[in-house]
């Protein structure tokens, strides 16, 4: 193929068509894809993998793609769980050689980085300078900045620090029609100069452009950290206790509430466990918040059980593999997680409907749930599913889960994104918005060169 | 109990896995892998090595960093060794160079360095003479029990004995010095013990560099202002901590 020759000429060893390499880039961390791979059923491989080192090289590939009509799938850590980065038949563009910190601005509290930089590497470097992004998702060891932006990521400290949309102030993108641009000439905290275009790329899953650089907000590392755990008799009441904290203005950095089944599995405790972490940089403010949080949680039924459960969570929070190797593989079972977000008034109904109806799907074991991101208006519930290692069971489970969520006032995704997995339900959620997105996509990318083609 | 920082510990661990966890993991260890951080190609990471063992035999450095950062401590290096079909039964020959209550044990090629060091701290010396295996980090070891202290990271790891920096405080007075330290791959899990021991002997570590593996090219520049515990780094022009200690002890 002529364009492959062009890429090889341009990139040399930074372009590979070797089978061993292509094998590593056909999927992301979509549980269905991993399950199939473990059963010896790999998906279609990409046709090549390239590693650009500069924005200009990204641009050149985009121009070649337009000329020859091949597809590009931007690739970062490969830790997305929805199949948004499947490389089938495409040229996978691995952005991880674009991994420099361009500048750290301590006066403005910003850091400018290339999109292929690992979050973990960036956070560790920031920590050494006394700063933090405080964007710590479970994929912290594997995710890169561009991927976090493209999948609309959120971290475990979101209740205080927000999601990726609150951290990204500006970005450089390469458009599918072959232009490089920053989205704003000057990085500013907020601007009303036109629509906020960065939101087109948040959750864009690589379909509207390739993010190559970003300016991110940083925070001083917290000086004062307090943690505690509580047991509540009722899962919903525990969630409402957090609503009360937020209404009062006592904002925890982390709150996680595990329902009875989840608490039993994770902590061997009978009850609904709540973990709380408070972080501050001022001692008076910190002490006042501790007092308010303690009073409110106690008054709303929280029984204090000490911080060892928070410590346990902190120790294991990035470990996905222990339980898979210990339980799922020997039992020939498989896993997935379904995250939704719902307003307070519908939280109760959605939670119970999901727990009941999804567990009734044949081949699915009882569903575990925890809430982990909180807003003044509602909360994210994160369901953990264990089921028979069988693709039919898998899709029956998802079909039921999406219906229950949409019928009960939730969103089909709080932070995992859409990808190949949820493409069939996106119209049911965003209604006519889907047509807007489709028209934007065809205007920007008339030859449809960008993205794995998941849902547009 | 088998020393948790030893080859034998991980060898036992390996037997508990029926499959490589890397087949199911998104790469908790990935940024710890020197060949991946150099290439940013997933094939040259533990995820790739698990799937393409012939490539692993050629490319994996067996630095063990992935094992140390893996939630289930999967000893990928052992999988790679088996793929290479190297002999597992070889033992080290050893020579007692100098008797003592405790022995400093290291590779034969470092015997002159060990002599100077042991003179200062009053240790016996054992030299291992199966150097190539140590370089390849792939052989189990059978030596009669002695009270041993490792000179190099490889020896400490393979024999499951303390590295000399973990016990240096037993042999010196207050050295009163501040340094920047390079911690080599195989000593990464012992960071706490090493820092605590150095502190007890008056060596303050103001900066510690852990992300440099000397088996990757062009590391000399990164080690320029540091003292390393890796004798193989001498080839890159790095300064060894034991040279500094020799100057300080007894002065």
Unreliable runs of chain A, pLDDT <50, ≥5 residues?
none
Kindly give the count of domains of chain B.
3
In percent, how much strand structure appears in the residues of chain B?
5-15%
Give, in order, the helices and strands of chain B: HHHHHHEEHEHEHHEHEEEH
What's the story with the biggest beta sheet of chain A?
Answer: 7 strands, antiparallel
Helix content of chain A: 25-40%
| CATH secondary-structure class of the domain at 97-220 in chain A | Alpha Beta
Provide a descriptive summary of the structure in words.
Chain A has 456 residues and is α+β, with helices and mostly antiparallel strands. Among the domains of chain A are: 97-220, Uridine Diphospho-n-acetylenolpyruvylglucosamine Reductase, domain 3; 224-316, 2-Layer Sandwich (Alpha-Beta Plaits), CATH 3.30.70; 321-416, GMP Synthetase, Chain A, domain 3. In chain A, 39% of the residues lie in helices and 22% in strands. Chain A is built from 19 helices and 18 strands. Chain A has helices at residues 2-11, 19-24, 31-38, 55-68, 119-128, 145-150, 158-161, 164-167, 198-201, 235-248, 260-267, 283-299, 308-316, 321-331, 344-359, 391-407, 419-422, 426-430, 433-444, and strands at residues 15-16, 48-50, 72-75, 91-94, 101-105, 110-114, 131-132, 168-174, 180-182, 210-217, 219-220, 224-232, 254-258, 272-280, 303-304, 333-343, 368-375, 378-388. Chain A has a seven-stranded antiparallel β-sheet with strand order 15-12-14-13-17-18-16, sandwiched between helices. In chain A, strands 5-6-10-8-9 form a five-stranded antiparallel β-sheet. In chain A, strands 1-2-4-3 form a four-stranded mixed β-sheet. Chain A is globular, with a radius of gyration of 22 Å. Chain B folds into three domains: 7-83, no CATH class; 96-161; 172-251. Chain B is 35% helix and 14% strand. Chain B is built from twelve helices and eight strands. Chain A binds chain B through residues 16, 18, 20-21, 23-25, 29, 34, 37-38, 49, 51, 77-79, 94, 96-97, 99, 116, 118, 120-121, 139, 141-142, 316, 318-322, 324-325, 329, and chain B through 17-19, 21, 23-31, 40-43, 47-48, 51-52, 55, 69-72.
């Amino acid at each position: 193929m002529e364009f492959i020759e062009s890429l090889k000429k341009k990139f040399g060893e930074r372009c590979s068509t070797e089978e061993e390499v292509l094998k590593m880039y056909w999927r992301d961390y979509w549980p269905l894809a991993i399950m199939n791979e473990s059963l010896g059923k790999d998906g279609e491989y990409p046709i090549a993998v390239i590693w650009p080192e500069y924005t200009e090289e990204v641009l050149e590939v985009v121009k070649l793609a337009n000329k020859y009509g091949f597809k590009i799938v931007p690739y970062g850590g490969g830790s997305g769980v929805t199949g948004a980065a499947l490389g089938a038949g495409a040229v996978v563009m691995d952005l991880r050689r674009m991994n420099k910190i361009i500048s750290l601005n301590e006066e403005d509290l910003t850091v400018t980085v290339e999109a292929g930089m690992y979050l973990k590497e960036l956070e560790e470097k920031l920590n050494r300078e006394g700063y933090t992004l405080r964007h710590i998702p479970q994929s912290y060891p594997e995710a890169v900045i561009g991927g976090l932006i493209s999948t609309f990521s959120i971290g475990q400290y979101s209740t205080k620090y927000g999601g990726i949309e609150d951290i990204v102030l500006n970005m450089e993108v390469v458009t599918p029609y072959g232009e490089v641009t920053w989205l704003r000439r000057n990085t500013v905290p907020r601007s009303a100069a036109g629509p906020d275009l960065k939101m087109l790329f948040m959750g864009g899953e690589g379909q509207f452009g390739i993010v190559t650089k970003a300016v991110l907000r940083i925070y001083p590392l917290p000086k004062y950290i307090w943690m505690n755990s509580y047991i509540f008799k009722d899962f919903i009441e525990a969630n409402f206790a957090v609503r009360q904290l937020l209404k009062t203005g006592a904002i925890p950095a982390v709150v996680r509430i595990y329902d009875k089944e989840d608490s039993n599995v994770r902590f061997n405790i009978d009850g609904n466990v709540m973990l709380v972490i408070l972080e501050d940089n001022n001692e008076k403010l910190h002490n006042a918040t501790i007092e308010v949080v303690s009073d409110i949680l106690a008054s709303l039924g929280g029984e204090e059980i000490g911080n060892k459960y928070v410590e346990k969570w902190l120790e294991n929070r990035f470990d996905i593999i222990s339980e898979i190797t210990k339980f799922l593989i020997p039992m020939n079972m498989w896993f997935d997680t379904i995250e939704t977000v719902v307003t307070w008034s519908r939280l109760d109904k959605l939670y119970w409907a999901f727990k009941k109806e999804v567990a009734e799907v044949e081949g699915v074991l009882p569903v575990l749930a925890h809430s982990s991101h909180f807003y003044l208006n509602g909360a994210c519930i994160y369901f953990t599913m264990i089921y028979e290692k069988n693709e039919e069971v898998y899709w029956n489970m998802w079909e039921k889960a999406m219906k229950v969520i949409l019928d009960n006032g939730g969103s089909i995704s709080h932070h995992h994104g859409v990808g190949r997995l949820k493409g069939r339900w996106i119209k049911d959620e965003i209604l006519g918005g889907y047509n807007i997105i489709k028209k934007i996509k065809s205007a920007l990318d008339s030859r449809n060169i960008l993205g794995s083609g998941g849902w547009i | 109990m088998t020393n948790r920082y030893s080859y034998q510990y991980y060898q036992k661990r390996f037997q508990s896995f029926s499959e490589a966890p890397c087949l199911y993991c998104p790469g908790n260890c990935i940024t710890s892998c020197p060949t991946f951080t150099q290439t940013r190609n997933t094939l040259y990471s533990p995820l790739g090595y698990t799937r393409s063992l012939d490539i692993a035999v050629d490319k994996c450095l067996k630095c063990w960093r992935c094992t140390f950062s893996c939630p289930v401590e999967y000893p990928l290096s052992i999988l790679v060794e088996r793929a290479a079909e190297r002999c597992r039964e070889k033992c080290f020959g050893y020579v007692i160079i100098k008797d003592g209550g405790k022995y400093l044990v290291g590779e034969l090629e470092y015997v002159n360095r060990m002599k100077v060091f042991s003179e200062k701290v009053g240790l016996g010396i054992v030299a291992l003479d199966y150097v190539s295996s140590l370089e390849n980090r792939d052989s189990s070891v059978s030596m009669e029990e002695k009270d041993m202290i490792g000179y190099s990271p490889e020896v400490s790891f393979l024999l499951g004995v303390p590295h000399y920096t973990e016990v240096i405080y037993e042999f010196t007075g207050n050295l009163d010095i501040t340094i920047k330290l390079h911690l080599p791959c195989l000593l990464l899990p012992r960071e706490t013990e090493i820092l605590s021991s150095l502190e007890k002997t008056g060596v303050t570590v103001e900066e510690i560099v852990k992300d440099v593996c000397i088996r990757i090219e062009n590391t000399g520049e990164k080690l320029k202002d540091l003292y390393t515990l890796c004798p193989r780094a001498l080839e890159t022009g790095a300064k060894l901590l034991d040279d500094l200690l020799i100057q300080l002890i007894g002065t």
